[in-house]
Q: What sequence folds into this?
């Protein structure tokens, strides 16, 4: 058996049913899913992908990219999606670390990534925003039949890179059962059926759009309206055809900013789900007043898929992420001792269950650090559980910034800032942003006599960091505030610059 895809296949409706419809009206049926994923699986094996090999992918969101994910799973490979905003320098790190057998990129980036692919012996293939490229050509010439490679529960299906606030990025290893168990649970908990039509405007290089949205719909046998990205006009146009939507808070903020987003427009909608970043109580309240529908907020991580969710039936409490999902153990612990804390106290959230990843790729010491001896994973998120059992996240350890649903780790940005001539030291913080939730702000202390300007600093970072990581504001100061222990006081900086974005 091929575990994850075998379950997808077992849940498939009639092969003639539409699985996916693009913005321009192109339709892909469930029969097409079987045939296209087989063609891509054959193409992968033809260029040397063996069971357990990594397939690294940095391409635009297309139906072909989704078929490539399924094909990798069918071929027994390990899918490694990479943010399309990453620079060639960033991609070089991931490829060097993961040593994929294949690197698939946009044709426009092929020259810049050729040396990276060659260094690890990866076959460099292309796929563009229209779903065309060298890999598409190979797939078009391949058979539409493929004998799936047998996989076990613990065999890896994907590696998703996440990052710590210090040190290098870590590859979270996700098994077939990690992904399948979560999809099974979410179908039931969120009551997805074959009648559902999900409006899919999320990226597919991230756990939210790739696993939560796509796997759940495949396990339910439903359909998707597949947008290349969130476009307000396109979403407003397609909402009447949808029954459900998954998004980040930014999506809902933008919808509420449109007069065309009315109660009548969404009166038929079954479910709006929000994740990847905290949803403010104000947005929750305004959405409910505008539409009569309560957004369902949930909590997940790259390493764990989904951990908690507000109830489908029952009160969806603003400012909370609901209850632990069935099969998921969750506790609040003292970050230092690991001792479980009484109800209502704030501590680190720890989780355990079939959804929790297998560890970090080639980092056994880091993996051991992040798990308690009884198997609970230490998330690093601080939270509490109230008297009714609802979980609230009250903060994030280590100053993680979440901007537009994407994680920004200050240490990575600070390291590059500190390399700029004239910079003595820097601090990167997140402050409230009306559109992105948090905006990245850099506070830079200049060396004596240095002639620094904010524009020059912005330019210096432009080709070294993905756009979402680049500071939206840069402040140059004489010195950064420190406490008596010499530690930079980021709380003070956040207070000082909290009004940067209005």
A:
């Amino acid at each position: 058996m091929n575990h994850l895809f075998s379950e997808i296949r077992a849940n498939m409706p009639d092969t003639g049913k539409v699985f996916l419809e693009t913005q321009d009206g192109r339709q892909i049926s469930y029969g097409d899913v079987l045939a296209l994923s087989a063609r891509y699986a054959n193409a992968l094996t033809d260029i040397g992908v063996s069971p357990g090999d990594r397939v690294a992918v940095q391409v635009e969101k297309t139906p072909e990219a989704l078929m490539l994910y399924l094909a990798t799973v069918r071929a027994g490979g390990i899918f490694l999606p990479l943010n399309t905003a990453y620079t060639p320098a960033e991609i070089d790190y991931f490829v060097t670390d993961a040593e994929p057998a294949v690197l698939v990129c946009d044709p426009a980036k092929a020259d810049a990534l050729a040396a990276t692919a060659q260094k690890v012996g990866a076959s460099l293939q292309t796929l563009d925003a229209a779903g065309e490229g060298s890999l598409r050509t190979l797939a078009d010439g391949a058979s539409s039949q493929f004998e799936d490679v047998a996989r076990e529960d613990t065999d890896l299906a994907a590696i998703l890179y996440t990052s710590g606030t210090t040190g290098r990025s870590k590859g979270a290893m996700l098994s077939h059962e990690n992904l399948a168990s979560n999809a099974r649970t979410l179908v039931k908990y969120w009551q997805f059926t074959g009648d559902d039509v999900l409006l899919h405007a999320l990226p597919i290089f991230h756990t939210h759009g790739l696993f939560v949205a796509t796997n759940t719909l495949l396990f339910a046998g439903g359909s998707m309206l597949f947008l290349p990205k969130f476009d307000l006009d396109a979403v407003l146009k397609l909402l009447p055809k949808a029954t459900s939507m998954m998004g980040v808070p930014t999506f809902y903020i933008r919808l509420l900013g449109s007069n065309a987003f009315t109660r009548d427009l969404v009166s038929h909608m079954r479910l709006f789900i929000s994740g990847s970043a905290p949803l403010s109580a104000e947005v929750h309240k305004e959405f409910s007043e505008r539409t009569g529908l309560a957004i369902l907020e949930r909590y997940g991580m790259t390493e764990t898929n989904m951990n908690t969710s507000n109830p489908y039936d029952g009160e969806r409490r603003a400012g909370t992420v609901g209850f632990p999902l069935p099969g998921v153990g969750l506790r609040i612990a003292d970050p230092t001792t690991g001792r479980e804390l009484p109800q209502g106290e704030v501590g680190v959230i720890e989780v355990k269950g079939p959804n929790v990843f297998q560890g970090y790729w080639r980092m056994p010491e880091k993996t051991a650090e992040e798990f308690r001896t009884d198997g609970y994973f230490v998330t690093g998120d601080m939270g509490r559980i109230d008297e009714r059992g609802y979980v609230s996240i009250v903060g994030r350890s280590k100053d993680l910034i979440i901007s537009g649903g994407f994680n920004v780790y200050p240490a990575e940005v600070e390291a590059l800032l500190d390399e700029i001539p004239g910079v003595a030291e820097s601090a990167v913080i997140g402050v409230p942003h009306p559109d992105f939730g948090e905006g990245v702000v850099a506070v830079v202390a200049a060396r004596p006599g240095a002639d620094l300007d904010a524009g020059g600093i912005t330019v210096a970072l432009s080709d070294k960091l993905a756009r979402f990581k680049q500071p939206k504001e840069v402040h140059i100061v004489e010195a950064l505030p420190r406490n008596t222990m010499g530690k930079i006081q980021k709380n003070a900086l956040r207070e000082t610059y909290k009004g940067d974005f209005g």
Notes: The mean pLDDT is 94.
